[in-house]
Amino acid sequence: MSEETTNLAARALTMTELIAYQEGAVVSRTLIDKKIGTLTLFAFGAGQGLSEHTAPYDAVVQIVDGEADITIAGTAHHLVAGQMIIMPANQPHSLRSDQRFKMLLVMIRA
Question: Where is the Cupin type-2 domain (predicted)?
Answer without folding.
Answer: 42-106
